Amino acid sequence: MPSLTVIPPKEAGRTERARHSCERGHPSNMTPVSAAVWLLFLVVLVSSIGVKWRIPQPALLVLAGFFLSFSSPFHDFHLDSRTFFALFIPPLLFADAWLIPKRELRKNFYSVILLGFGLVFATVAATGFFVHWMIPAIPLASAFVLGAVLSPTDTVALNALISRISLPQRLVYVLAGESLINDASGLVSFKFALGAVLQGHFTWPGAIRDLFWVTAGGLLAGFVIAYNIHWFRQLLSHRGMENPTVQTSLSLVTPYFAYMAANSFGASGILSVVAAGLYAGISDVRDLSGSLRLHAASVWNMLTFVLEGFVFLLLGLQLRRVFSAISPIPVFHLVTYSLLVTAMIILVRILWVFPFSRISWMLNRIHARNLPPPSWKSVFLAGWIGVRGAVTLAAALAIPLEVHGKPFPGRDLIIFLSGSVILLSMSTVILTLEPLARWLNIKDPGESAEEEQMARLEANQKALAFLSARAADETLSEQQRDLLNRIASEYILRIRELEERKEGSDNVRKSLEEEISFRIQALQEEKRVLHRLREEHRIDDQTLRRILRDLDLVEEGIRSYHPR
């Protein structure tokens, strides 16, 4: 086996657990269950405030965790670093890989690879040397750990920020693909940098052998795990056991199985999770029924919301102890370090995207001859949007407390700088992205909306043609033919509505909005009648819930179909 096979932060776990046996634990005056409940409640409360006042939720959660750390129940809150990494990273990466558009990932393959791998390694190297030069007290190996921690961008934070403005879809897809790939490459870099600190040496031949092993083994393990779990889910469906709860539960354990399987033989659990998520994203959409997809989407949305919130809240809980550990360093120096490291991250990104965007365009033209070159405005904006988030936090907090019985060199300062870069990068993008996009005159040309409109219209037209052909079958009874004609009339109305939407005039848009409003009002009246029938004891609770569920699905479909 290769000599450098460190699974963060397993190797330092023995000494860490020996000296900090309480770290697996919880607040001294609380049970683990009550602590988890209070933290979950705080995540929901703070996130609601952020949505209401349009304040970035990560910043609010970090502040809430920081103030919470002064309360006696959470004064000495710690979480075992290995547990933290294994608990939070797999589902977050799996969800990102599951959701990313696969066709766009293939179309922008070279752009994503050059950003997701090349820029990560450039960031690790530049940040490592710069931080070691600026703060000699941080060894070069520890500085590379910081560079690896800061190299991945955050998909969830990125989506939250760019969803408020209209950007070209190609730019959005490239950034999303980069966030997914650099999560994996950044965490693999983190593993190697951490291994150099833990083992005290680093050799390029050993690192290259390890890189091949962890990459190939991780990707293969993830594919095998996802394939077999999907096969088992299909088997259950074919045997009449298509229970949404069971099927979604199998989906939830997939990233953990992929992570553990790869780690068990020294491969990359991170790449294994990404491979499993990519495969599951393709196979689930293709093979699962509509009810299963709806159920799984709801559960995964809730899970990622909670995990993202927990990560930022836990960072805030660590800040008081981090500030205490770095208190000998003057505040002015800490602020200067934070600003300079953030500026370095942004500068490296901008310097990278300009030459390599041209290289990726030339490579992409091998497959798409008519692909227009990216404008310098879009390239600059892609370089400016480099938000760090949950994966950076999870990696920083996963750094072990000790190395060979001694404190990990620079750990508290690394965590502080990681949190500072996250907050500064988010704040910078939040304050400047919209005016910058407006000043550069960058906006979505509407290709995605046109594609959706075309797909809806063509699908409905094909369905109508199928119904018309079936109705012409002379072997059908009159009753069957009437049913088919009734269904066809609904498709005719839907096609007419889609064609009106295509016109896009203000009068058509207003008419469609009024129609949707009337439909929702009618559904609300149905629900009021059902509640009255329940109060009069003419129906029971089970009947009420069953009918309400059907009406809720119809209403959700109408709301999601609102004209843009």
UniProtKB/TrEMBL annotation:
GO molecular function: potassium:proton antiporter activity; sodium:proton antiporter activity
Mode of membrane association: Multi-pass membrane protein
Major localization listed first in the record, in broad terms: membrane
Transmembrane segments: 33-51, 58-75, 81-100, 112-135, 141-162, 211-232, 256-282, 294-317, 337-357, 378-401, 413-433
GO annotation (BP), single: sodium ion import across plasma membrane
Purpose of the protein: Na(+)/H(+) antiporter that extrudes sodium in exchange for external protons.
Record protein name field: Monovalent cation:H+ antiporter, CPA1 family
Region (Disordered): 1-25
All residue ranges annotated as the Cation/H+ exchanger transmembrane domain in the record: 45-438
Subcellular location field: Cell membrane
UniProt cross-references to InterPro entries, sorted A to Z: Cation/H_exchanger_CPA1 (IPR018422), Cation/H_exchanger_CPA1_bac (IPR004705), Cation/H_exchanger_TM (IPR006153)
Keyword Cell membrane carried by entry: yes
Organism: Leptospirillum ferriphilum
A GO cellular component annotation in the UniProt record: plasma membrane
UniProt KW keywords: Antiport, Cell membrane, Coiled coil, Ion transport, Membrane, Sodium, Sodium transport, Transmembrane, Transmembrane helix, Transport
Similarity comment text for this entry: Belongs to the monovalent cation:proton antiporter 1 (CPA1) transporter (TC 2.A.36) family.
Keyword Nucleus carried by entry: no
Database matches in Gene3D superfamilies: 6.10.140.1330
